[in-house]
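4.2 Preliminary Data

To establish feasibility before requesting continued support, the project team ran the inverse folding procedure on a target of 132 residues. The structure was first converted into the token representation described in Section 3, and no sequence information of any kind was made available to the design step. The complete token record follows.
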């Protein structure tokens, strides 16, 4: 039978209890179509590739969502900075880290003591994008 099974990440994203704009943001990010400054600069647009928030590093998805001082502060306040630090150590792309966080097994998410952790992660990532 020629049908393909959809990637489970898409089912997870569309099931999230959060605004559609957040789901679309996650979808765009995972497809690598988020117009971060590094991406725009690589496409020869006249924009500095540096992060507009910290000016310390090139703004790609990984920096914007996980490595920027602002992002680190958000994740630390939410109490999930250790999980994110471990994911970043594996040297994954920002998109892969976000996908990893959204599909974490329920037992790993329960440890954090929150309800709706996936929604919190998705909305926080959207907030970091929007706030910049």
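Position-by-position output of the design step:
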């Amino acid at each position: 039978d020629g049908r393909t099974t959809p990637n489970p990440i898409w089912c997870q994203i569309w099931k999230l209890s959060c605004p559609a704009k957040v789901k679309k943001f996650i979808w765009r990010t995972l497809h690598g179509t988020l117009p971060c400054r590094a991406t725009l600069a690589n496409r020869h647009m006249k924009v500095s590739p540096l992060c507009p928030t910290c000016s310390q590093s090139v703004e790609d998805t990984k920096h914007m969502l996980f490595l920027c001082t602002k992002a680190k502060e958000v994740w630390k306040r939410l109490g999930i900075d250790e999980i994110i630090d471990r994911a970043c150590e594996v040297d994954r792309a920002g998109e892969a880290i976000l996908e990893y966080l959204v599909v974490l097994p329920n037992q790993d998410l329960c440890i954090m003591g929150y309800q709706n952790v996936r929604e919190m992660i998705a909305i926080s990532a959207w907030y970091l994008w929007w706030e910049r």
